[in-house]
Amino acid sequence: MKPSRVHRETVDLSSYPDLVVVYLGMRVNRLYGLRTLIARGPRIKPSDEKADGLLAHETFVWSLFPMHLGLRQYWRDLPALLAWARSEPHRVWWRDFLRDSGGTGFWHETYLLRGGMEAVYDDVPQRRGFASFAPVQPARGAMFGSAARVGRPEDDLAPVVTEDDLYTPGAGS
């Protein structure tokens, strides 16, 4: 057998026992969604990329037509990710998006090294990720918050928007 010319490496994740990886995507569903993507899209990433617990942040393009941008983030642990998600400006971004997606769709999938995965898809017209093969159900009740969906309800914080505010006419206005 011929010796390999490939330089192979791997990583030692033992220093990150509670590592969390999250993929996020924002897809333009309607032409006016380009405006939403340009205005709101940059506000989804941590402003200084030094948010407590954020280990790495990467951006990429899922597709050009329809425009679909993505992020991959590595977090020290789930509480750090959830704390950042409920802090400014991300909290306001998420609240505003849940009120009106502005011609876009948004989704995320979360993977925990210690076990557990979860996802949510908001105004995403095409099944992707877990939704491309697993049964889809409304994100209501026990499936409303990401910590509960991943099996860690004890790590949940107050939601950006409560289920009642999101689904009850006139609530939270």
Automatic annotation (TrEMBL):
InterPro entries: Monooxy_af470 (IPR025444). It comes from the Bacteria. Pfam families: Monooxy_af470-like. This is DUF4188 domain-containing protein. It comes from Paractinoplanes bogorensis.
